[in-house]
Amino acid sequence: MTKYGSFPGARPRRLRTTPAMRRMVAEHRLHPADLILPAFVREGIAEPVPISAMPGVVQHTRDTLRKAAVEAVDAGVAGIMLFGVPEDAKKDGVATAGTDPDGILQVAIRDVKAEVGDDLVIMSDLCLDEYTDHGHCGVLDAEGRVDNDATLERYAEMAQVQADAGVHVVAPSGMMDGQVGVIRDALDQTSHEDVSILAYTAKYSSAFYGPFREAVGSSLQGDRKTYQQDPANLRDSMVELALDLEEGADMVMVKPALPYLDVLAKVADAVDVPVAAYQISGEYAMIEAAAEKGWIDRDKAILEALTGIKRAGADMILTYWATEVARGL
Fold first, then answer.
1. Would you name the residues annotated as active-site residues?
2. N or C: which end of the chain has fewer CB within 10 A?
3. What is the largest CA-CA distance in the chain?
4. Tens digits of per-residue pLDDT, 31-54?
């Protein structure tokens, strides 16, 4: 008791006294089933290729991808998001390799499906950018602009070949108007009613994508500001959210995660469907680089960042640390 009597009467510190106490009263907990592992598989390589800006992350061979999938299952990770990296010679203006049944992504889907079956939710990036010689997420018109409706036709074809390969979830990431509805129709018309759509609902034109461009061997010329969202806008995301849900999205996503926690929280409060957030390459690279310099505690920073994303409302988190963190949990 102080000279002020019983003041302070409220002592929140009582619930912070020991690790066991703090664990017992924690409001949010990470679980391996919250995590999804993004993985890159590259055509025509015999050994994994390290991604220089993302220490510990590689472009997989087909064999090492299968191994990574098994490791993810063993760690309790919920899903794997696959990105295909074709040979440069196979890139063209309309992303032909992206809809080739024997294209690298479709082959990778079949590989992972054969290896782990339904023990891991197999997701696929549904976008043209990895397969176009100009690096954009869509087909270009005569003036070099991304043609929204021509691109939708390609997305419909891509959804069908990915579903034929055995994917559980397609994830359209190109931010074309109407993409979810067109893809839902394409899947339903080809007897793939059970394939889910994870909509990239709020995907911002971000500086934090830099390392990802190396990861997928991007051929991008210019930028994507005419179709990805302006970082200054929040209402824009709510418009996209309403449209995606109306068109049949089963799950929605916010990308990037940490710079857009306010968007994530608002989306999570507004919907009754599962919400994902993508902790993208730049977020990963910053923590790894700062940790390598000895400026931060790597493991604590990783868990703190992921917990913040969970606290903001994410039901699922795509993170390159998925298997490592799941093992620790």
1. 203, 255
2. N
3. 81
4. 999 999 999 999 999 999 999 999
